[in-house]
Prior knowledge:
Blueprint: H1 2-16, E1 19-28, E2 33-38, E3 41-42, E4 46-47, E5 67-72, E6 80-86, E7 100-104, E8 110-114, E9 119-123, E10 147-152, E11 155-163, E12 166-173, E13 176-180, E14 190-193
Antiparallel strand pairs: 1-2, 1-5, 2-3, 2-4, 5-6, 7-8, 8-9, 10-11, 11-12, 12-13, 13-14
Amino acid sequence: MLDLALRITELERRVANIVRIGAVSDVDVAAARAVVSIGRLTTAPLPWLTRRAGADRDWWAPSVGEQVLVLAVGGDLAQGVILPALYADAAPAPADSGSVHRTVYADGTLFEHDSAAKITRLSALDAEGTLILEAKTIVLRTGEGGTYHLDHAGYAQRLTHLGGPAFETETWHAGAVVTGLPDNGFSPPKVTIDDEEP
C-alpha cells in the first residue's frame, strides 16, 4: 500500500508539472537556454521554443521577467521546454485591435501592420536608431495616384505618381514649397512661398 501511495503521489506530481506558468529569471543567450521561476521552484536551464530551427532559423531570446509556459514531457521539469509567452501587468498587450499585428521592441522600435487601415509601419524614431536596408537591387514602387513622401527635420519632399510616366513633385524647406511637373526631370519646377506643410 505504501508503494502504491508513493506511486500515486509521484504520478500526481508529474501530471501537475506537465504545463506550468512561470517567469524567466535568467537567460544564457550563448547556450540558448533560460531559467524559469515557478513560485518557489526554479528550473534548470531550459531551451525555448522557436518557429524555425533548420535550414531557415529564427532567433528571439526571452527577457528576464517575461511570463512564459513550461511544457514538461512526462511531467519532468528537467526535460521541459519554454513556450512563449503571456501578457502581464508589467508587460501588457501592445495593441487592442483585432486588425493590428504589432511588435514593440524594448528600445521603442515598432513594426505594425493594420489590415483594416491598410497601413504597414516601421518606426525607429523613438529609439533614435538606424534603419539599414541592404540588397543588390532595391525597388520602391507606388501605385497610380500613390505618393512617395520624405520628411526630414526642416525638409520634406513628396512625389506623386499621376499615371504612366507622369509625376509631380512638391518640396517644403524653411517655408518654401516647390510644385509642378518636372517633365522627366529636365524642366525646373515652379517655386512659391507657402507655410503649409505636407
